[in-house]
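Here comes a specimen:
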Amino acid sequence: MATTIQPDFNFVLSERRVFDETKAGVKGLVDSGVKKVPSLFHHQPEKYEKASNLGNTWDDIPVIDLADIGRDPSKRQALVDRVKEASETWGFFQVVNHQIPVRVLEEMKDGVKRFHELDTRVKKEFYSRDGLKSFVYNSNFDLYGSQHALNWRDTFRCYLYPDTPKPEEIPVACRDILLDYGKHMMNLGTLLFEFLSEALACPEPELTVGTTMHSDSDFFTVLLQDHIGGLQVRYHDNWIDVTPVPGALVVNIGDLLQLITNDRFKSAEHRVLANDVGPRISIACFFRPVGKGTLKLYGPIKELLSEDNPPKYRETTVAGYQAYYVAKGLDGTSALTHYRI
């Protein structure tokens, strides 16, 4: 078996290397006038035939309305209860009235579009697979690790905290809005961490901080999506559409939060369906430690454990979890399984 699979994958790796060395990504293929999707991006249709798509069911996704949270303290407990219920059942919810101006959300989407529409020669300056760089543009983070088909997407990633990048490290096309958007996201993220900590009734809340089917490898993600849609969350073995709603932000629980809450909060599997309308733009803010913080050990919070609820996961560092997550790739399985006791 091994002798037949290995040569095939070596051939695939050589094809991927050729693609990677263009530094033009998926958009480069489109700009070149490609008429058919290259085999590197072919996914097996039967993998998705088992999933039942229930159509536009945005109303089923929990919605957390943050209006007047600063002026009406009595609303806080009700919001905490809503966050707790959504995190334990769905692992997904939307937030509205989050105090981030619509103009900021729209300009952020425009900034992402401006970058990806830059001349390839300009974008190549930022194309890299060096995870230590403040700003990195590439296609498929698991290009050389995953033995599954690639995703039809290009991305850029920027570390905004705890150390703000130097202005010259961020492309002019999206520099100002990226820094502005990051400030708004940190404020929202801090509020969400407070809600999640209170939902756990954790006496030490500081302990909780530190497009193929997948779950995210962070504590939680805040996602801004455009009008095109395609995002789906897996709920009770059904795929539920997360229909775009103007001004709303999508929040999903990540693997690390499921690990430290010992399965109380759910890291929901999700995916994005391809379509012939586009390009689709989405901006995800991943809340997890960076730098030295990635070397701290995380395990189930001790205050949540008991004889009836023993630890279900072994401890890991964020760096270790990330390394395993990247090496495994987006293969449709959860990286959490590797850490189960």
Observations:
- Confidence is low (pLDDT under 50) at residues 1-7, 46-54, 203-210.
- Residues 43-118+173-339 form a domain with the Jelly Rolls fold (CATH 2.60.120.330).
